[in-house]
Amino acid sequence: MSAPVTDPFLRWQVPPEQVHRRWDVGDAVGVLHAGWHGRPALTVLGDPDDAARLVVRALTEGAPVRRVTLPVGTLARLPDPLPGGLRVGDGADWDWMWTQTPPPVQPGEEHVVRLGPDEEPDVAALLDVASPRTSARPGDEGVRGWWGIREPAGRLVACAGHTERVTGVPHLAGIAVLPELRGRGLGGAVTAGITRAVLADGAEVCTLGMYADNDPARRVYDRLGYVTEHRFSSRVLTRARISPGRPRAAGRG
To answer: What global pTM score does this model have?
Structure first.
């Protein structure tokens, strides 16, 4: 088995007390656990062919899966519909990254400061225009704090949040820069600043997830020393709706 319990993602992203069940199929390992909003989620690591067989096995055995996170390439290998009349719904492809090393100092990093609770409305306003797909917002459960950069006049122009799934393991989210100021190094500065802060505070590792189509962000994280460990496809599972007497359309609903 290529993905034992010591796999970095399972070790640093999936709280062991929230794991309900585990499966091993060939080169793949899957765990049923509580997702971000408490809904049952199945996360699978390993070979895509074995991962697809693992998903079918888990659903056939009645696992109450509402969301799947799978190695890229697995979705095309799944039957349609899945056991239990389920079908693959909406979601996104993303990469999971980590570092244990303080990043190189970035230009402008000296302006990164930790933001107070009274500054969270500014963070929310920035995220609304700069990162509407963000997985973390002020007030969300698990968010431990926000860092940011302000202009001399006071406008918040960049931010990054620190969340935790596993106790003591900071996971960055909500990294955003005002659209009109992108390309000036603000994203690298705020990411370097928050990474340096959490590692200096005693964290063993700092992790983050990024949408797979965000190539500018990938270049920043690579430069800061983050390692891409897994490339994932996350999707919700929905009930198949087939109208009586009508042929089922091809593809996934």
So the answer is: 0.89
